[in-house]
Amino acid sequence: MELKWLEDLAAVARIGHFARAAEARYVTQSALSRRIKALEAWAGAELVDRTEHPIRLTAAGTEFMSSASAIIKQASEAQAAAANYARIGERGITIACLHTLALNFLPRLVAELHRKVSPFEAAIVPETRTIEEYLYALRNGTCDFFICYNHAAIPFNVDVDDYPRLVISRDRVLPYGNAAKFADILEPDNERPIPLLEYGPTSIMARVLRNVLSGAEFERRLRTVYRATLAESLATAAREGLGIAWLPESIAEHIRGDTALDPISHDYSAELEIMIFGSRHNKRPVVRRIWESLEAE
Fold first, then answer.
1. Same domain, 78 and 221
2. What keywords appear on the UniProt entry (predicted)?
């Protein structure tokens, strides 16, 4: 049994609708339904009356939910208490972010904030999580901020009242590779197969890339020769001449050095926003000062 199953049941009980509960939990309806069924299998009883509209808990579900609610509350409090020990100091903050942003962008951002806000300690957590997990961490105080890329291809149906957000910078995705080797390979009259350095299918950048490549004349010539979740791995592969990777400019500039890694084209690109999320429930003074400084930009 997983804690998120209890939270799923609580959402269904509160909202009374599977589709809307799934939206509130930032998962697909089918995933939510599977998790509720798994919870019912674990509990050994039907917890949800699916014949009612709006959906209601069964008698067993109502009894189960009374204990489950207490477990959710206690788990959240325990996690928040543990998070306080994970902070470097009383003025410390924890920032969850994509690994790509942790390499270059976050150190510069923290340094800039040190100049504008009184010094603070920062713990950076570059983990791969779902949006649901990032928002849960914001809500229970495990992290103070979440920083990620934003693009039309990345759905962020987040309640801005509970999770305020700001655009704090921008980046751009371009095709990079050895210019001497792949200079004209994206041109319409070129029939050469294109060795693609591809993002893992579940990564945020994979969604962006699908959006960029959709309908491109050369899409039929793409041949995946290397796949990785991290942009840094694709950038190194591109630098070694293995193929073409669509990379954020900030990563390409960092890893390029004096090697032959250049934009192959500026046509097939995507503009990215760098966005920071907070939680309205987080009242820590250092967090509020940082947010106010970012808002003033």
1. no
2. DNA-binding, Transcription, Transcription regulation
Matching residue, tokens 């693609």 = 196
Whether residue 176 is found in the same domain as residue 122: no
Question: What predicted TM-score, i.e. pTM, was given to this entire model?
Answer: 0.71
| Same structural domain, 158 and 279 | yes
- Would the pLDDT of 258 be above 60? no
Query: 291 is written with which tokens?
Result: 């947010």
**Percent above pLDDT 90 for the chain:** 38
Do residues 160 and 289 share a domain?
A: yes
CATH of the domain at 148: 3.40.190.10
- Residues in Cβ contact with 281 at an 8 Å cutoff, skipping those fewer than 6 apart: 139, 141, 162
| Sign, CA torsion 248/253/254/258 | positive
Same domain assignment for residues 80 and 96: no
Q: Which residue spans within the chain are E strands per DSSP?
A: 48-49, 56-57, 93-97, 122-125, 145-150, 165-177, 194-199, 222-228, 245-248, 262-263, 270-277
Q: Which DSSP string corresponds to 145-210?
A: EEEEEE-TTS-----TTTS-EEEEEEEEEEEEE-HHHHTTTTSTT--S-EEEEEE-TTSHHHHHHH
Total number of domains in the chain: 3
Based on the fold, state whether residues 8 and 126 are members of the same structural domain.
Answer: no
Cβ pair 225, 196 in contact under 8 A: yes
Q: Which residues contact 267 (CB under 8 A, 6 or more apart)?
A: 186
CA distances from 263 to 39, 126, 183, 213, 244 (A): 50, 27, 9, 16, 9
Tell me if 229 sits within 8 A of 128, measured CB to CB: yes
Phi, psi (deg, nearest 5) at residue 88: -70, -35
Q: Quickly state the pLDDT bin for 55 (edges 50, 70, 90).
A: confident
Structural domain boundaries enclosing 24 = 3-85
Co-location of 80 and 206 in the same domain: no
